[in-house]
Each structure stands twice: as structure tokens, then as C-alpha cells.
Design goal:
Layout lengths: L2 H19 L2 E4 L4 H12 L10 E4 L8 H15 L6 H4 L14 H4 L4 H27 L8 H4 L2 H14 E3 L15 E3 L7 E2 L5 E6 L4 E6 L10 E2 L6 H8 L11 E2 L2 H5 L9 H10 L7 E3 L2 E2 L1 H11 L8 H5 L6 H33 L4 H33 L1
Parallel strand pairs: 5-8
Antiparallel strand pairs: 1-2, 3-4, 6-7, 9-10, 10-11
Helix pairs in contact: 3-8, 12-14, 14-15
């Protein structure tokens, strides 16, 4: 009567032993830091000998994000070369990109100040992705004859990461049990990704569940023998460069951003309320998206300047000014003069950057030259906007 139970018990014990055998473990008690820890704990009254520090190397790994899975797919298929079913597509992908994640520090320094921070953050985010993925890369070793550290390098991941960021289309997928809970919205679209972006075209794009096709429809239509464009969305040139690695000439969405450091250059340091004013603007979200456009300074920029122009006795007007209240004639003139000063400072910065770009281009290799050219295009577009802004402000000043 007890035999089935005994067999079940033996099976359970064997299963438990096998489970433990699948996990390699290393005792850490002998390591200096743990020896010191035990001595310290003993002095504090902890005497238990039942628990010892052990490093368990199990087979479990957390599920990977969809983006990383797609990156690994591209790296693996590129490694297979002509043996890959995807080789005709892999072969037409760029060998390198002009996204800021590829930029060296001296090229990042040539970006407008408001974009430098975002470019640096992009590089840091990529570095974090790479470091956090190393264990997953090592777990793929059984699939390859070459060492995975030679295959899944930082350069390889950067190439794949940019390929996914710049060339995939948005498409929602069902949740996979093998991937993390992050939303899976990436889809490679061979041939479709050859379409260039144009900010002036209108398209309707998306996956048609009925036809099982990703469809792009032009609102204006396309003429025969003319280039077919797609529109990625209402993105300014900063975002286009950051996410896609290019700049659109004559982009109606583009503006020149005024960062806090540039803003402070035109302010009166003797203003005893300056720190309080800046805190008030920040708390009300008025130190972000301060811009110049083709039609002059933005409403947000002029509103921020109007508050900064107020005298100490006008403290009670702060809230009304942020809501759009007018200021006195002399304060409005101060704002126009300050905006013109900002415009001139940004223009000078552009001129210096363009001169430096011209120098660096002379001895640059092809890859670096492409990066310098895209930054140069951005600076030239911003120079064009600032020239229009100066005319607008000079007209206002003369009224």
C-alpha cells in the first residue's frame, strides 16, 4: 500500500536533486568581505551557522524587451551573411548611421546647447542597454560557434539599435510569453523603409488588419516618375536628427530653442528677484520650449521675458502675465530688446560652430564627414530661422 507513495517520494527526491544539479553554486564564505561581515555580525550578537552566502548560477533569465530581441535578430542575421534568408534586406541597410549615438564628444559639442543634453542622454541610454544586455548575450552562446562577446559587440548593438530606431514602423503585436511586458510595437518593413521623409506631404499610414498589409496612402497623390515621400510626423529638426539621423531642409516644424544658459545671458544679474522669477517660471513650466521660429519669438518665450522684465513693485502681476496680460510699453520694449539680444547670441554661436565644422571636415574620414555634414545642415537651418527672427524683432523695435 505504501509502495506508490515511496516511488513518488523517490521521484520527488530525484527531481529535487536534478533541480539542484541544474544550478551551479559557488560558496562565498571564504572571500574577505564576507569573512569581515561574519566577524562584524558576531560582534553584534548574530551567531547562526545555518546561512552561508552562495552565488547561484541558475538557467533562468528575465525576458528580454522586444527592441532588444529585434536588435539581436539583426546582429545574428548579419553574422550569417549570404546564408541568411534576410541577407538581401540586411545588405541594403546602412553600415553606419548619423544619429548622435555615433557622435564623438567633439561633434556633440558642435550641436546647439539644447540638443547637446539630449544627444548625451541618448548615448547614456544606449550604454545602459548594452551593459544590461551582456548576460543575455552570453546566454546565447549555445546558438553560435564563435564567442558571443565577439559577435554581440557594442558596435554591433549600436548598428542594430539605430537600424530599429530609424527604419521600423509602428505596429502593435500580441504579447509574447518569451518577451518582457514592454509594448511590442516594432516592425521591420523592407522596401517601405526606402521612402524618404518630407515634412510637407500628408499621408495616412498604418497596418490594415483586413488586408494584412501595412499601407501608406498619399493625401495629395503622387505624380508619375516623381519621388514618393512619407511623413514621419510633425517633427522639428532636433527630433529628426536625434531619432533618424538627418535634417529636413525648409522644415516648417523647425525652431531654434533657447536654453536656460542662453536665456540668462540677457538677464540683469542685479535683479534681486531674478532667482525667484526663474523658480516661478520653472514651477509653471515656462522654462521649456522657449523658441524662435520663422515668424519670430514664440508666445512662450515672450511671456517668460515679460515676467522677467517686471520690476519689484509689480510682484502681484506675475500670475496675470503668465496668463497673457500685457505689460507697460517700456517693459515690452525691454522684452523685444532682450529677445533681439538672445537672437544675436544664438547667431554668434551658430557662426562659431559653422567655422569649426568647416575646419573639422577637412581631415575627416567618410563616416565622420557624414556626421559633420548633418550637424552642419542643422546649424545652417537654424541660421536661416534666426535671420528671419532678427528682421521680425527689428521691425517690432522700430514701431
Amino acid at each position: 500500500m505504501n509502495k506508490p507513495g515511496c516511488r513518488a517520494g523517490r521521484r520527488a527526491r530525484r527531481k529535487r536533486r536534478k533541480k539542484h544539479e541544474d544550478v551551479s553554486k559557488v560558496t562565498l564564505s571564504h572571500e574577505a568581505q564576507f569573512v569581515l561581515l561574519r566577524r562584524w555580525l558576531k560582534e553584534k550578537g548574530f551567531t547562526s551557522q545555518s546561512l552561508i552566502p552562495v552565488n547561484f548560477h541558475g538557467k533562468w533569465h528575465p525576458p528580454v524587451p522586444p527592441l532588444l530581441a529585434l536588435c539581436c535578430f539583426l546582429i545574428a542575421e548579419r553574422h550569417r551573411g549570404d546564408a541568411s534568408e534576410w541577407s538581401p534586406y540586411i545588405n541594403i541597410l546602412p553600415k553606419t548611421y548619423t544619429c548622435p549615438v555615433y557622435f564623438s564628444e567633439d561633434i556633440i559639442d558642435l550641436l546647439p546647447r539644447s540638443l547637446q543634453k539630449k544627444a548625451t542622454e541618448q548615448k547614456e541610454q544606449f550604454q545602459e542597454l548594452y551593459c544590461s544586455s551582456l548576460m543575455f548575450f552570453r546566454s546565447l552562446q549555445p546558438l553560435f560557434t564563435e564567442p558571443t562577446e565577439e559577435l554581440f559587440t557594442q558596435d554591433a548593438l549600436r548598428w542594430a539599435w539605430c537600424s530599429v530606431n530609424t527604419r521600423t514602423v509602428y505596429m502593435e503585436h500580441d504579447q509574447s510569453e518569451y518577451l518582457s511586458r514592454e509594448k511590442d510595437v516594432y516592425a521591420l518593413a523592407p522596401y517601405l523603409d526606402l521612402l524618404n521623409h518630407c515634412p510637407n506631404v500628408q499621408v495616412e499610414a498604418g497596418f490594415n488588419k483586413e488586408t494584412r498589409r501595412y499601407e501608406v496612402k498619399s493625401v495629395q497623390g503622387c505624380k508619375k516618375f516623381q519621388q514618393v515621400f512619407i511623413n514621419y510626423g510633425p517633427h522639428d529638426n532636433h527630433r529628426l536628427l536625434l531619432e533618424y539621423g538627418f535634417v529636413a531642409s525648409g522644415n516648417p516644424q523647425s525652431v531654434v530653442y533657447v536654453d536656460l544658459g542662453t536665456l540668462k545671458l540677457c538677464l540683469d544679474e542685479k535683479d534681486k528677484q531674478l532667482t525667484q522669477k526663474l523658480l516661478y517660471l520653472r514651477d509653471n513650466d515656462f522654462l521649456r520650449n522657449l523658441t524662435f521660429g520663422m515668424d519670430g519669438p514664440s508666445w512662450r518665450l515672450m511671456t517668460a521675458l515679460r515676467l522677467l522684465s517686471l520690476k519689484p513693485e509689480q510682484y502681484s502681476s506675475w500670475k496675470n502675465v503668465l496668463l497673457g496680460a500685457a505689460v507697460s510699453q517700456d517693459r515690452e520694449e525691454w522684452c523685444i530688446h532682450s529677445a533681439l539680444k538672445l537672437c544675436n547670441n544664438l547667431t554668434d554661436d551658430n557662426v562659431k560652430a559653422l567655422e569649426r565644422l568647416s575646419q573639422l571636415k577637412q581631415d575627416a574620414n567618410l563616416s565622420r564627414l557624414e556626421q559633420l555634414r548633418v550637424v552642419e545642415s542643422l546649424r545652417q537651418e537654424e541660421q536661416r530661422i534666426l535671420e528671419h527672427t532678427r528682421v521680425v524683432l527689428q521691425n517690432l523695435w522700430g514701431q
